[in-house]
Specification:
The structure is a single chain. This protein has 95 residues and is α+β, with helices and mostly antiparallel strands. It has a domain of 31 residues. It is built from 3 helices and 5 strands; from the N terminus they run βββββααα. The radius of gyration is 25 Å and the shape is elongated. The model has no long low-confidence stretch (mean pLDDT 83).
Length: 95
């Protein structure tokens, strides 16, 4: 963490607690160079899974697209009809 007063990167966490909103962490830090204290807030960055396409573009994961692509081989009779909907996540893991 960079000190906002002198720009030094050598800072020490003095105190850590949950912020008032309950969604972030509040940290009191002390700069080892100028000995000043400052507060930082850390929030979780929640992101949904993304798929990297062949051309490098990214898009959000879509279960519907996965189902469509998985069902495509079944159109010519290579697998039983509705095999995807009959399988539950627990049966796929063997539980």
């Amino acid at each position: 963490m960079r000190c906002p007063f002198c720009g030094a990167t050598d800072t020490q966490v003095v105190e850590t607690r949950l912020a008032e909103d309950g969604l972030s962490v509040r940290r009191r830090r002390r700069c080892a160079s100028c000995d000043k204290r400052f507060t930082t807030y850390e929030n979780a960055d929640v992101r949904l899974p993304q798929v990297v396409k062949g051309n490098g573009m990214r898009e959000e994961f879509s279960e519907a697209k996965l189902r469509e692509a998985s069902a495509a081989p079944c159109t010519n009779g290579r697998c039983p009809p509705n095999w995807w909907t009959r399988r539950s996540p627990t049966s796929a893991r063997g539980s």
